[in-house]
Amino acid sequence: MASPEESVAPAAESLLKYARPSVAGVSKYAQLRETLADAIRGGDWKPGSQLPAERELVRLTGFSLGTVQRALRELADDGILVRTQGSGTYVAQGLGAIDAPLYLRFLGREGEPTFLPLFPKVLARNRIDERGPWSKWLRQTGADIVRIDRRIRVGSDFTLFNRFYINASTFPGIANAPLATLDGANLKQMLAGELNMPVTAVRQRVSFVTFDAQAAAGAGVKVGTRGMLLESAASAGREPLCFLESFIPPNERRLDISPD
Predict the structure, then answer these.
(1) Residues 194, 187: contact at Cβ < 8 Å?
(2) CB neighbour class for 82 (10 Å; exposed up to 12, middle 13-18, buried from 19)
(3) What are the chain's domains?
(4) Cβ count within 10 A of residue 142
């Protein structure tokens, strides 16, 4: 593990290199979170290395202590950082990315991988009886739908909020699995595994919406931000697998929604 001196030394240069201009609708903590994430993914802070102390980050960035603390807390919630009481904040040894995503395929820039990696964090899982666009697809009959709320970091660019719906009676394993086992998981592939059938189709449609409080909090933007809602319905043969709602904030990436 790198010493604090080795880790703090390049901090000013790293933060300057990856700093981004302010964007309307993006909070200060989200801006700092993405700057730190860029520095980590860019290799300026290696796995296991220690980040500068909170007050040192305040001095280097000009942000308030509360802003710094929230940015670090969210990176820790996403599994990118590990915060140890009395010791400090360190880059996690491993980051769990979704393997071969079938949707949310954001194109990288020239020289980057074809699609940006997705890093999901499960926020909550609830059984619901409310009805919506998922109801017909999942053959909802009552309180048999499970909704999994996730925050998904797209590369080191931005964060989106995702709601993942399944029929609990069809997939009891996923509906009851420990939440920690779902972080970094490709849920659609897990569902197809329970049926012993591959995902054969993903239908998608796009609309533009105003983010409510939950979607805005999950994406790290202000309530009332206008963004994209991507609705995805996956199937294995004639068997419906899941329905997804992805709230995508304004960003500079292109989204590939072509069929496989």
Answers:
(1) no
(2) middle
(3) 4-91 (1.10.10.10), 105-256 (3.40.1410.10)
(4) 7
- Please choose, from the candidates 3, 96, 88, the residue with its C-alpha nearest in 3D space to the C-alpha of residue 46: 3
220: amino acid identity, one letter: G
Q: Which positions of the chain have pLDDT values less than 50? A: 1-9
In this structure, what token pair is assigned to residue 254? 């292109």
Distance CA 233, CA 71 (A): 33
Encode pLDDT of 134-186 as tens digits: 999 999 998 899 999 999 988 878 899 999 999 999 899 889 888 877 877 77
Task: Let me know the angle formed at the C-alpha of 182 by 181 and 185, rounded to the nearest 5 degrees.
Answer: 115
pTM above 0.70, yes or no: no
Residue bearing tokens 């619901």: 128
- 114, 107 contact by CB (below 8 A): yes
Token code pair at residue 201: 């189709």
CA atoms lying within 13 Å on the CB side of residue 144: 14
